[in-house]
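Message: I would love a firmer grasp of how sequence relates to backbone shape in proteins. Thank you; the sequence and its tokens follow:
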Amino acid sequence: MAEASANENVVNRLIACINDRRIEVMDELFHDDAVMHWPQSGEVVRGAANRRGIYNAFPQLPTITPRRLLSAGNLVVAEAKLDYGGPQYETVFIFEFRDGRIAQETAYWSEAFPAPEWRAKWVEKA
């Protein structure tokens, strides 16, 4: 349980450093050989140098609003909203840990869309 809690703290620090635009903190949170998978765009980011390059070149970093974190062992799943000051994305991050640092991240995101009216009688609006 303590390991999962420590890993959740790392994810919370990651969210805070992106929100605070202090991306240099990411070097403390990720292993140098960490891999980031972005299946929707078909991209894989390998290693610290490529991660730094992408985050330093980001046209606009999002503000991340976490919805919930679920963790067990070396795995943390985070649901969040990414706000780019216009477009907003519902996001799921899957973080895999090794020795207390992120070894692998997989991220899925989708722009929100209005619910179809035909489902209204069976659903609640969040």
Remarks:
- The domain at 2-122 is CATH 3.10.450.50 (Nuclear Transport Factor 2; Chain: A,).
- The helical segments are 2-19, 26-29, 47-57.
- The mean pLDDT is 94.
- The beta strands are 30-38, 43-46, 63-72, 75-83, 88-98, 101-111.
